[in-house]
Amino acid sequence: MSSTTSGVIKLHPRTGDGRLAARLKREIEGDVLFDAWSRGRYSTDASIYQLEPVGVVIPKTERDAQIALQIALEEGVAVLPRGGGTSQCGQTVGHALVIDHSKHLNQVVAFDRDARTVCVQPGMVLDRLNAWLKPHGLWYPVDVSTSAQATLGGMAGNNSCGSRSIHYGNMVHNVRAIDAVLADGAEFEFGAVPADLGKFDAPRGYLDLVRKIRAIAAREAGEIEHRFPKVLRRVGGYNLDMLSDSGHNMAHLLVGSEGTLAYSKRIHLNLSPLPKHKALGVCHFPSFFRAMEAPQHIIKLKPVAVELVDRTMIGLARGNPEFRTTVNRFLKGDPDAILLVEFAGSDRDEQLAKLKQLVELMGELGFPGGVVEVTDAALQRDIWEVRKAGLNIMMSMKGDGKPVSFIEDCAVPLEHLAEYTDRLTQVFEKHGTKGTWYAHASVGCLHVRPILNMRADGAQKMRAIAEEAAAMVREYKGAYSGEHGDGLVRSEWIAPMFGPRITRAFEEIKGIFDPRDLLNPGKIVRPSKMDDRTLFRYKPDYAVQKIATVLDWSEHEGDVAHRGDGFAKAIEMCNNNGHCRKFDAGTMCPSFRATGEEQHLTRGRANTLRLAISGQLGPDAFASDELYATMDLCVSCKGCKRECPTGVDMAKMKIEFLHHYWQHHALSMRQKLIAYLPRYAPWAARLGWVLNLRDRVPGLAALSESLLGFSSRRSLPKWRRDAFHLIPSPSSPPTPLRRAERGADSSSLPRVGERLGERAEGEGVLNREVVLLVDTFNNYFEPENARAALAVLRAAGYQVHLPRAQDSARPLCCGRTFLAAGLVAEAEAEARRMIATLKPFIDRGVPVIGLEPSCLLALRDEFISMLPGGASAELALNAMLLEEFLAREADAGRLNLKLQALPQKKALLHGHCHQKAFAVMPAVERVLRLVPQLEVETIESSCCGMAGSFGFEAEHYDVSMKMAEATLLPAVRAADADTLIVADGTSCRHQIHDGARRNAMHVARVLQLALE
Q: Strand 117-120 and strand 263-270: pairing?
């Protein structure tokens, strides 16, 4: 059990668990994790709860999982199977041995295209399965919003539903059979059972089980008819209402049982044909109440989905950079709520006709012109991504008050939906809060989350609201659990909703399957109280240590009493939704994609940081080697900054952590060489011919790995004699380039305050000045990129300034290498130096243009965090990548750049992670398409794996290559020899060269080649 010191729950090894861990390590191939750090990472899911597990097993094989199950049960230890860990009701936390299937047990076992069936292991993620099925024209249609991370095992355990359940049904309607292992070790295929058991050829143990369960169902038939809700969305308790003497499917009893009855080894699923055509209508309503009245009429048109998005979610989505553009494309005016109504099928004309009928219906309901018709498949997909992210968007609210899940899945008949939501809103107001609404209007199951502060009076309000909501649901003959299951938060409400007889029947079924109560105990049967604060993530005495942060976290601070807690609050923004576990789109989380391990996941890091700063991992955890290991594979891609719906910025958190870590530890020589590169580069460049011998003389690469830790399997960047900014010796005459750096006479400069594109009073010319900021990497390793950018800008008629600091000892630097090492003071010095040098240009609004994404975008991100205030903000407003500037000029009609077609007709583009994080990729594509006849294809890739110095480090080489091999390198290798490979990041280009033996080009060079 956990011990308590100063009111904080401590995670520590248990001496009593040593034998269990030892047995597991001896008998299985997979990972056995009993350390406090691993147990802490598995102590939470997407609910409000936190319970420390006994230990964690990550089985490599099905045999591993069964042995782990058997050993735990023999030792009298509870067992908790787990997939993505995204349960919102606390199903996947408990004092048990957690068996995590997501890393290895995630394969398709059998597939029959003609029969439209598939058998999968429980760790298979829904999106991955549907990607696998798509070439066969099939899909698994229980399309939950967490499809990118939800596993089929977890979905079966919860009886998941999804947006299109009105057409396809719930999980229970789409599961054909389950291969399950019972608590006594017996293994059976739970599937269809005929009415006449005398003719049923089955093992005796299974037959006895069927008879016992059928007898309970027959005995309680009257009570089942009376108590079970008559709505589609009913997932509370066990599915007794689906069992009968006329024949039934025993798998349906396991679906929704939350792992309390048996261990699901394999799941057999029924599939559906992929609809060929879809039409989407976005219905706008001036009031929430009117939106809730409409679904009962809309469903008569037989849509496959009717989904609600309320005002709160619309506002939050508009404030999220990932979704803002999409929202503005389908939203008209300022509606109080919208309904997304989808029609789908094989006949396109039929779907378009239904869309027209929807427009007519909305007119009849009093909302003429209230439908935005969407027939473009790409926009439809983007709109559904916004809807799917609804919960996580809502959880992005800053501060202690958060939307809390406990009554969110109540389902009522459609004719009562408007009245129910109105009355429940009044309940929220009575308790001094409001709710956020979204989801499945088609089936009367709306996700509503009251905004509560669970560190203050939230638990009391949660109890009061739950009691009133339950009473209303009973009044309307609805279901208290409509989609996300029971878990810790709703199991308590099974008894009042189903009555004592059905509750006892559930307990009887649990006893038959699991007499020792070792399978995920405390869920559905004999539960704890939902408001037991000792089970909460933020327990009554939860407190964080004060940390003197070096970066600005003030945007996360709450009221005056919590000033200085911004860093902790930023960490706590992670609600464990697991969106960082996605595998096939976007950037995050590249290290998890490579390892499949919770430790190397944005969520895993955030949880570990939270446990560390709150003292739950010991007093010195925040500066420990264990936390360093947790953060080690974070490549600071910033994918989470844009893609995490709750805004967790792990790259920034890593900088903060490393700063504090190095206060207690010493940097290695390799780390110093990398961090201080911009300081010594001007002098090292003069010895480049010597340094470049490392990759030419046999044995030197191996020596550099032995002495410094640079991987011998990786080439190093080549120092160039023709550096762009090369410091001349005192006797050297000024070069033409240094003459160009001085810029024009002041008489030709615009007046202070004149911005790019503005006309000076009395003048008829436009401001054509820019500053070109050449970073360390393009200066000393790839100067051709800087020269290309200079040529392109001059060809377009811009006057290019190449400013130097007053000391002129070396070029300006963004401090990126220092930031990567956590040397914030050094990076801040570089930032001040740059701001001081660029201030005259900033004051006049002259654009500051950069080439290397990680360097230039530091001016828009880390500079503001290090030096919050006017000067940094002004620089951020003026700083842009070359492509952003050229795209902006082209869109404004100001770009006078004459380009001609190239011999190469196709460009394969890889985006730098930071370009994706700051939504720069559309500008990159736009500029490449300025080249006549050039076809541009963007690789859907995550991080290239180099991530600055990461890929050069011997201990990271294998992970680096695994990141690259996921998508990037195979795509490059498959490209024709005459296809241009384009990548703006110097690290990206290096990875492509080393891994695919292709030379990638910066966009500037492509444009230079196309200059007339």
A: antiparallel
Angle at 435 (CA atoms; ends 418, 146), nearest 5 degrees:
95
What is the DSSP-derived secondary structure letter of residue 696? T
Whether the bond between 813 and the residue before it is cis, its omega within 30 degrees of 0, is no
The answer to whether the beta carbons of residues 970 and 964 sit under 8 Å apart is no
**In this structure, what DSSP letter does residue 121 have?**
-
Torsion of CA 927, 929, 931, 935, to 10 degrees: 140
SS3 for 249? strand
CA 865 to CA 867: how far, in whole Å? 6
Q: 591 and 633 in contact (C-beta within 8 Å)?
A: yes
Q: For the whole model, what pTM was predicted?
A: 0.91
The predicted pLDDT at position 559 comes to 53
Q: Three-state SS for 402?
A: strand
Copy the structure tokens of residue 454: 């669970």
**Within 13 A of 776's CA, how many CA atoms are on the CB side?**
26
**CA separation (Å) from 662 to 546, 624, 679, 926, 998?**
18, 10, 20, 42, 38
Alpha-carbon distance values, 291 to 158, 295, 421, 822 (Å): 29, 8, 11, 51
515-519, long-range: CB < 8 A, 24+ apart:
515/183, 516/73, 516/76, 516/183, 517/78, 518/72, 518/73, 518/76, 518/77, 518/78, 518/79, 518/183, 519/78, 519/79, 519/183, 519/259, 519/260, 519/261, 519/262, 519/263
* CB distance 409 to 482 below 8 Å: yes
**Between vectors from CA 883 to CA 879 and to CA 884, what angle results, nearest 5°?**
45
Question: DSSP state, 717?
Answer: P
Q: What percent of the chain has pLDDT over 90?
A: 82
| Four-point Cα dihedral 588, 593, 594, 599, nearest 10 | 80
Using CA atoms, how far residue 728 sits from 114, 341, 803, 810, 860, in Å, is 74, 68, 16, 11, 32
Average pLDDT along the chain: 91
Grouping H, G, I as helix, E, B as strand and the rest as coil, residue 265 is strand
Three-state SS annotation for 508-559: HHHHHHCCCCCECCCCCCCCCCCCCHHHECCCCCCCCCCCCCCCCCHHHCCC
C-alpha distances out from residue 56 to 35, 42, 317, Å = 9, 8, 36
Average pLDDT over residues 672-677: 97
DSSP states along 976-1012: -TTSEEEE--HHHHHHHHHHH----B-HHHHHHHHB-
Phi, psi of 848, rounded to the nearest 5 degrees: -105, 115
pLDDT at 804 over 90: no
Residue-wise over 452-477: b if at least 16 C-beta within 10 A, else e? bbbbeebbebbeebbebbbebbeebe
Place of tokens 């720069």: 920
* Owner of token pair 């989470």: 640
Helices (H), 892-985: 913-917, 921-928, 957-966, 968-974
Q: What is the 3-state secondary structure (H, E, C) of 66-77?
A: HHHHHHHHHCCC
* Share of residues in the chain with pLDDT > 70 (%): 93
